[in-house]
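User: Quick sanity check before I run a bigger batch. Here is a single chain. Can you write out its predicted 3D structure?
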Amino acid sequence: MRALVQRVTRAEVTVDGESVGQIGPGLCAFVGVTHADDAVAAAKLARRLHNLRIFEDQAGVPNRSAADLGRPILVVSQFTLYADTSRGRRPSYIEAAGPEQAEPLINAVVEALRAEGASVETGRFRAEMAVELVNDGPFTILLET
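Assistant: Done. Predicted structure follows.
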């Protein structure tokens, strides 16, 4: 699994003009699933995401996590994180898991985050989503399991 994580001051997902998930200061995580992923990978990604130390402490050093500060997390499914751009001009998505495998694993990440006490909002799987966010820093990290 992969997660492109951005520290944000706010983030919102809309589908057909309707807000389906929004947060204030926290993390926006675009999550992709590949064929070899399973529930163990989902739990590991959730734990790493919730405990990722990218929020500043009193000294201005990124030593605090969403778990430490009680910051919310917006999870958005993103199969394009597994795009292969090594040839030509059109990305291949052969490494991305199909929706039948990916959707339950995205849900497993969300449930694992909630089990750890995180406040989680989500996008809508298989929908045309518009994601609006303000990257804080900017601070963007790629996590992989």
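The CA atoms of residues 87 and 140 lie 26 Å apart.

User: Great, the batch can go ahead then.
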